[in-house]
Amino acid sequence: MASQLPIMITPEGHAAVCEEMRWLWRVERPRVTSEVEAAAALGDRSENAEYQYGKRRLREIDGRMRHLSKRLDRMRVMTAQHQAAAGDIVGFGAYVRVENEGGEQTIYRLVGPDEFDPDAGFISVESPVARALLGKEVGDVVEVQRPKGLAELEIIALRYGGPPPSQHESQH
Asked: Most buried in the list 61, 90, 117, 138, measured by CB within 10 Å?
């Protein structure tokens, strides 16, 4: 079997995946198992919707746990020491404030594929915007091809760890 590449993840993302595994194993699976046992005690399982649904839900939980377990085996937590090594260059885990050609500013955090959340500004390092930003510095302008056309983004601020850069911060 070919060796699979590690999956980069922030400490916060790793903790969230571990917490989901813990919740599935210690809370959700036992709850659903109890519901299935209670439904099975009612008799005819072939026409028992609660039993059928519970069994399907248990398969979903077990599948999710297998998926997370395989992902956890490949995860490489990128700590503050890894991030500090990047210095003034955009890398994994960075918060990056950019400004588009219309003057609109957006703050992104470059994260692994298991923790992206566009609503929170967390974008996967595999996304077109993140790939354009990686390796760049404050003051650099990057071009990103988006569905609605080409966009130019200027890197206004960069920070590793702590909160995202403030709207008034203009350097690392």
From this structure: 90
List the beta strands (DSSP E) in the chain.
7-9, 75-77, 94-100, 105-111, 122-124, 141-146, 149-160
* Rounded Cα gap, residues 157 and 139, in angstroms: 8
Structure tokens at 126: 């595999």
- Residue indicated by tokens 């911060």: 169
Residue 35 CA to residue 51 CA, distance in Å, equals 8
Distance CA 64, CA 22 (A): 12
| Residue partners of 124: CB distance under 8 A and separation at least 6 | 110, 111, 112, 113, 116, 130
* Domains parsed from the chain with CATH numbers: 7-77 (1.10.287.180), 80-160 (3.10.50.30)
- Locate 56 and state its tokens: 């399907």
Contact in structure between 99 and 153 (CB atoms under 8 Å)? yes
Q: Could you tell me the mean pLDDT of each successive run of 10 residues in the chain, 172 residues long?
A: 76 93 97 93 82 94 96 87 71 92 93 90 92 94 90 92 62 46
What residue type is assigned to position 111 of the chain?
V
